[in-house]
Amino acid sequence: MPSADDTKLRGAIAAVQALIDHLGGRGVIIGGVAMGLLGSGRTTEGVDAVVLWSDQEPVRLIAAAAACGLEPRVDSAAEFAATSRVLLLRHSGSGIGVDISLGSLPFEEAMVAAATRVQAGTLTLSIPRAEDLVVMKAIANREKDLLDIAAVLKANPNLDREAILAQVQALAELLEAPEIVRDLQAVFRRAGGRRR
Question: Domain span at residue 145?
Fold first, then answer.
């Protein structure tokens, strides 16, 4: 029997997927939820997603989120989202935090276009391909992200590492952050296994 916390998290995940569906499938659930489906069952305390949103005014997205049971969790959510490209929400039924990244980069558009639908219990969720999740984790480049990459590689040994590396190199160049590529290559070396 699921715990109360599991039920709350499930409600927040369902609300985020409802928002993605409401927007015509223009988004994917990422973060710990995607990791649980593609790599490891690590715990998560919130729900993260990328939604394609080129509109510079996030007020319309806030209204769409409200219709799905998601409310702003900071007073100036629209202003914060306009500058940071992250909309900070909370699931009204559970109080669980939801971070919606406003995607507009070609990589994000391609990631959403290639999204897969997976069954998670009674929910059908839009998540990125494992390769795209690795790219996102590599760009975030925190210690936990590097550990997540290793878990995704272990669970999916036939990933196209060359395509991942090419995408990460292009994004790292834009960010002027060569250490991102170096760190990803180190994870690949430690993981061993097949290269495609």
Answer: 129-196
